[in-house]
């Protein structure tokens, strides 16, 4: 189970570090072609989402790696799953049902990471 956790956590961590980093530092104009929803959300909220994603990525990797508060990995995975459910809700409210596939996949992976973190 350890190997499975690290595969899932590594994939999620890399994804959220990249996506969160972009949201945290790029301008609205640079983000809009990739993420159309940034036009309807205040930039402070976009930056906060980016920070949450970066912290979630760190929470998946650092606690189990260091052995300090490893239960935080479960909390981080659950938090990222909740984030994706909310993101899917935003897409659905904007009539972008076709864009929810990635949200569903990330929700499933985060749920798997949460489960695998509890079996470690």
Keywords:
0% strand; 120 residues; 78% helix
The helix-and-strand class reads mainly alpha
How many domains in all?
1
Instruction: Kindly state the percentage of residues in helix.
Output: over 70%
Mean pLDDT: 96
Count of alpha and pi helical runs: 5
Into which percentage range does the β-strand content fall?
under 5%
Question: Order of SSEs, N→C?
Answer: HHHHH
Give start-end ranges of low-pLDDT stretches.
Answer: none
Largest sheet: none
The total strand number stands at 0
If you had to describe this structure to a student in words, what would you say it looks like?
By secondary structure, this protein is mostly helical. Helices cover about 80% and strands about 0% of the residues. It is globular and about 40 Å long.
What's the arrangement of secondary structure elements?
Blueprint: H1 2-25, H2 28-31, H3 43-66, H4 71-93, H5 101-118
Helix pairs in contact: 1-3, 1-5, 3-4, 4-5
Gist of the model:
The chain has about 120 residues and is mostly helical.
């Amino acid at each position: 189970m350890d190997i499975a956790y690290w595969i899932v956590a590594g994939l999620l961590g890399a994804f959220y570090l990249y996506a969160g980093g972009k949201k945290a530092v790029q301008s609205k104009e640079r983000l809009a072609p990739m993420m159309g929803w940034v036009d309807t959300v205040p930039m402070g909220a976009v930056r906060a989402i980016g920070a949450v994603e970066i912290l979630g990525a760190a929470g998946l990797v650092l606690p189990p790696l260091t052995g300090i508060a490893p239960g935080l990995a479960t909390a981080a995975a659950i938090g990222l799953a909740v984030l994706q459910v909310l993101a899917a809700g935003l897409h659905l409210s904007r009539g972008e049902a076709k864009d929810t596939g990635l949200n569903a996949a990330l929700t499933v992976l985060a749920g798997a990471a949460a489960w695998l973190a509890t079996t470690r």
